[in-house]
Every structure is written in structure tokens, then in C-alpha cells.
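Worked problem 6 (solution included).
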Amino acid sequence: MVDSAVGRAAILRPTLLFLQLRPPTPEEATLLGNKTLISFVYPKQNEALVNQLASQQATVLAMDCIPRTLSRGQTYDALSSQANISGYRAVLEASNEFGRFFAGQMTAAGKVPPAKVLVIGTGVAGLAAIQTAKNMGAVVRAFDVRPVTKEQVEAMGAQFLEVDYSEDGSAAGGYAKEMSKEWHAAARAMLTKQCADVDIVITTALIPGRQAPIMVTKEMVAQMKNGSVTVDLAAEAGGNVETTVKDKKFVTENGVTCLGYTDLPSRLPTTSSSLYSNNISKLLLSAGPQTTKKPGFFYLDHNDDAVRGMLVLEKGELMYPAPLPPAPAAPAKEKKDAAPVVIDYKAPFLQGAKTAGILSTSILAFGAVAPNPAFSSMFTTFALSNVIGVQVVMGVTHSLHSPLMAVTNAISGTTALGGMHLYAHSTSVAATLLGAAATTLSTVNIVGGFIVTTKMLDMFKRPDDPPEYYHLYGIPAATTMGLYGIGTMTGKFPELDASAATLSGLLCIGGIAGLASQKTARLGAVSGQSGVALGVASTMGHLNPTIGTAAGITALMGVGAVAGKYIGDRVEPTSLPQTVAAFHSLVGLAASAAAVGDYWNCPDTTQLDGVHLASIYLATVIGSVTATGSLVAFGKLDGRLGSAPLKLAQRDKINAGLGAATLGAGAVVMGAPEVGTGMAALSSALTTSGVLGWHMTASIGGADMPVVITVLNSYSGWALCAEGFMLDMPILTTVGALIGCSGAALTKVSSFFVGKVSRVYVAASLCLTDSFS
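Solution. The predicted structure is:
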């Protein structure tokens, strides 16, 4: 830091590009001259500063003007990164002034109730404040003019307050708009009542380019209890609390402490500096090398939505605000003498009849080409499970979509059944190793997946929720397992294994159906766990392995369970989504390993029928795509890989080539060659499909990974289906079709809430959903 103006001028004179956080003062702006400045500017509020820089012929890019709805712009959205810090720090400042615990306590000395926190404005800062206050044990309520934020608030365990007046406050770019007088009157009545009840009020409401709206009036503050605290994150723009004094701590006559600090990010200097520097560096890398293809050059590309959106001045010329996208062409005006519009009421019925005809014909066609009754029976199981999967997942509330993915991921660990089957019937060392790998990896996914599910559901618990006794369901589960074990040992009930497998499938369906509401979500998790456990037990009974084989399977699953518990216990709440993606990769690896092992295990592969060969090929390919795609999704979500989409020059041709190579290898496998040629073709399909899964996922931006995970979840289900046909195990087909179609339906729903996703990637998962929904 150089204190003297002369010293600063000497340092700044040779510099061409200036990077800073706060808008420059008039003196600092003078030192900038006609150079380039990147910082927070707030051009609407600081018109004098903009005019001064324009007169100096300067170039200015405002960090506060980055389009926040642009997926890749999230990487350098400094408003979000700093607002996240402000929301966190606001709770710490409030707790420092508050005279009680945040979490309630019951001690011998007396009962201390939990603090009640009201967060007004649920953008990035508001959500950070909600999470921090919840983590400290407070009872949190939140309010926002945008109804779409309700699900986010409730997903974090807070109560969303609503005004008894219908008006949507959502505006373009994810911001809020100014509301009507009638709405403000209704909101004022609701907030007055809330302020009298809560202990801490944190406000974050801002409207771009406008004075911050007054949300908490002096009269509301006057009704707050002595010792209460308000923290106004909008103090710099005038404040949401009428008693706020900018950059000061003010105590009202009734003992309410009002904080108006504007330097909250600076109170966590290490974190704020690290995040802001990362925002800046990612912006420079995106704006330069990606546009000019010449690393080391900084170039203002007007075709770059992010750069154009934040460009305020270019060599003194005013470029703010950025032009709006062209409006859609106005519809042609109807001629006065045009014929009246005729509505074809018959068309939708005709289209529906065509769809029904195609579907019916397709199902009959499967019956015509079915090689044996077992295939027809398995196809019936597959079709009905698809219908059930779609209907069940459509009943799941949006706020529980993340736990739903975790539950279906854990249930997809039934690939362990295929690994057990291969291990028990192995005729070679290679097949034994592949069976062991499939069994162990699947068990890691089962145990770790259910732990992650429990952690996700724990985020919805509230301190005042009634006690739960779901462990009592262990009694009927243990009784069922015991009765099955006794019946199996007698050997008098040959169909008992099939009944147990059917019950396992029903319990897995219940595991997904339970997430239709908060009240039954935990029961759904218990049902899914019971279903998977009974599926493993029924498979052991069906295999009837030797003592040595049974001991080996038990040991492998024990190792997998320990690893899964180790991973699941150490996952932080913020890392749950990427952990689900990592577990998906294990399911894919297990499916591919079991399929390749089953092919290797056949003494004469030329005797395999077409259904068996097709099942082996599909399980191998789909499992490989799932494995590599999930690893890329994990890397992007966890920050180990860049979030920017991979843009190779010949992307579509590469995908087409890899797809053609995979299909070509499949044609060789379906020709039932001798085992050496068949294994070479199967290995080729495994490799090319794996590369295809990696490339397709890498070509999608990090902001769209949540939708990609649902697609991969669907893929893991289809891999399970293929295993079911391959091993003639209805439980695998039932669970696989349930997960596959559930994941596809969830993808269809999620794609409306998350950014654009590669259409080619999603289309394969949606095709069956559209057929049955």
C-alpha cells in the first residue's frame, strides 16, 4: 500500500488494466486516465463517476452488471460470491449483539427457547443467512416478493411467509421488481405482526438501479422486543429498515440494535479476497483466450454476452446499458376479409389414436419376436414397471427432488445382485474378479447412498418437529427376513425366492413413492433400505451358494459397506449432490463389470441367444456411459474440473464417430462369434461408449450438471434392466425400469428449472417417459 498520491501515481502510470473491488473515488479515477478498469461501479447510482471516466476516454467493465442468468457467468458473478459472504456474516454480527443462545437449551437452571430469525429477501445473501442461522439452531422464517423462491427456502428448513395478496414480484434477471401499493399494505400488516414476534431481522431486498425499498418501518421496529437486532444488508442503497444508519450501529429507544454496516465482506477478508480474485481471474480467462484464441491478449468481444453486459464505457463511449435481445417478430396482422379461423377438434383425437396404435403395435411386435415365454414375462415386468415409475415420480414434490435422486441412486446399487450371481457361478479367475468388483462397488453405493439420503432429509428437519420412531419398522423387516430364512432352509417352498423378490420390488417402489411429501419421506428411505436388503437375501437364497462362496460374498459386501459408510459419514452438506454423482459412477462400473464377466463366463458364446447377447451389450455400454459421465459431473460440481463446457471444433462429428464405433462393435457381438472375437468387440464397445459418455458430459456447462445427474441416474436404471434380461432376474428388471423411467421423468421436470442441457444427451432418457406419461 502506497500512501502518497505521488507514489500511487508512479505505480499506476505504466499499468494498462486496473482491477479493484470498490468503485474508485474521483481522485483515483483521475489517476486511471484512459486505461481499463474492472471493478464494482454501479453506473446508475454513480453517474458523476461514469461521466468523469468517460471524459478521460477510459474503458470500464462493471462487475455488478454481469448477466446473472447466464450459466457460465455464474463463475465470475462477484455479486453472488460477495453476497454469500454478507449473508453469512450478517448472522454472526447479529449473534454478537444478541444476548441469548441461537439454539434452544434445556438445563437444570431453566429452559432457553431458540432465537427466532426473520430473513427478508431470499436471494444469494438471504439464503446464506438462512443456512447459517439454521446451522446455529435458530427458528428461521423468510419472506420474498418472488414466490418461486419458496421451494428453496423450504428446502433449507425455513418457513416461507406469504402475503395475503396475489402478486408476483419476479423480474428479469432473477431480481425482484417494485410492488403495487395494495401489495405493500398487505405485506406491511404481515411484517408488523412478525417483527413483534421475532428476535432478529435480516434484510437483503434490493432493486437494481433503485433506492432500496423500506420493508421494516419505524413503527415495526418500535414493536420489537428489547434486545432484538436488525441487520440491514441494503444499507448502502438507502436501507430496508427505516431506522438504519449507514455504517453505524444504532440502538433505538426500545432497545433494538440496528446494524447498517456496508463492509460485511471485508470482515471476512481471506474468504472474500479469495472468491473475488477467482471471479476476476475466471472473467479474464473467459474474455480473452476464449474469444481471440490467443492466450495473453485481453479483447472486448461484443458478441460475448457476459462482456457486453458488463461493458459501461469503451474508450469514453457510453455502452451502458447493454442492448436487449431482439424482440420476436410481431405476428402478421389479419386481413379484414380473412376467412374465420376453423378449429379442428378432431386433430388431437386423431393424434392420440395414432399414438395408441403405434404403442399397441410395438408391444405386439415384441410378442411376435419373443424367443421364449421367459422373455415375454420379463417384458411385461419391464413395461408395467415403467408405467409405475413415471406415475410415482410425478407425485414427488419439487423440494424433495435431491433426496429422490439419492434414494434412486442407492436403490440402483442392486447391481450387487448381478455381481453376486456372477461370483457364485464363475468358471474363471477373470469372471470371479469382475463379479467381486461388481458386488463390492455396488455395496459401497448402497450403504453410502442411503447415508447421503439420510443427510439430505435431515436438512429438512426443524427443531420443533415431533419425535420419529422409524426404527420400529425394523421389527417387521427383521421378522420378514427371519421367516424367509426359515422357509428357505426347509427347502419346501421353491417359489419363496420369487415371492421375496416381488416384495423387494414393492418396497423399492415404496421407497420412491414415500418422497411424495415431507411427512412420508423418511418412511420412503426406510422402505427402500428394506427392499434392497430383502433383494440381497432373496438372491442369496436363489443362488444357494456353497459355504465358501457365501463367505466370500459376505466378505466382499462387508468391505463395500465399510467403505460406503466411511465416505457417507464424511460428506459435508454442501457436497451431497456431487457425492450422488460419484456414486452413480460405481453403479455404472458394476453393471459393465457384471456384463463383461457374464460373457467371459460362457463356455461357448456362440450358443447364446439374441436376447442374452443384446442384454450383455446394452449393460456394458450403458454402464460405461454412466460411469465416465458421472465422474465428469462429479468433477465439475466438486470444482476439480472447470465448469465451462468443452467446445471441440468437431464435437458433433466426434460424438457421431464414437456412436458409430459403439454400434459397430455391438453388431459384431450380436453375430455370436467365438469368445476371443466377441471379447475384443465388447471391449471396443466398452471403450468407445466410455469416451462418448465423458465427451458428452464434458461438453455441458457446470450449471446444468444437476439435470445431467438425473439423466445419468436414468441410465443406471436402464443398465439394471439389461442385467435383469441377461440373468433372467425380474427384480433387477423391476427396479431398473422403476429407476430408469423415474430418472427420465425427473429429468423432464428438472429441465424446466435448470439451464439448457444437451438435447442429444437427454433425448434417450425422455423417449420412454413420453410414451408412458
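Discussion: The first strand starts at residue 17 and ends at 19.
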